[in-house]
Amino acid sequence: MPQRLHAVALLVPDYDAGLAFYVGKLGFELIEDTPLDAPKRWVLIAPPGGETRLLLARADGAVQQAAIGNQTGGRVGFFLETDDFDRDHAAMLAAGVTFEEEPRDEPYGRVAVWRDPFGNRWDLLEFSRGT
């Protein structure tokens, strides 16, 4: 049986804050928002047309709250692929997304690092043809 990565958990301080940014500003799709034992919810989102989902996980307790925005030790830990870098870069800037750098060309494609409002570092990238 083939396997695929279904979801990756992303710690957020609050479900609604995560939804406001990812769905409200970036245009990700809300896949599911199911109440569990209060105050937990099963909140799955995905970029338009994306297969792998993000599970927004409300941080519970001091250890998890301290990890918000640093789940990957300060490295870029999330990679948003696009088929039109310039279009999506401009839309993200217009939505108030903070980019750490100007777009740059690498052997694998065009890329720029950005942060979500919780401190998580992402790449916006468009792969070169054939990559």
UniProtKB/TrEMBL annotation:
SUPFAM superfamilies: Glyoxalase/Bleomycin resistance protein/Dihydroxybiphenyl dioxygenase. Residues 4-127 form the VOC domain. Keywords: Dioxygenase, Oxidoreductase. CDD domains: VOC_like (cd07263). One of its GO terms (molecular function) is dioxygenase activity. InterPro entries: Glyas_Bleomycin-R_OHBP_Dase, Glyas_Fos-R_dOase_dom, VOC_core. This is Catechol 2,3-dioxygenase. It comes from Pseudooceanicola antarcticus.
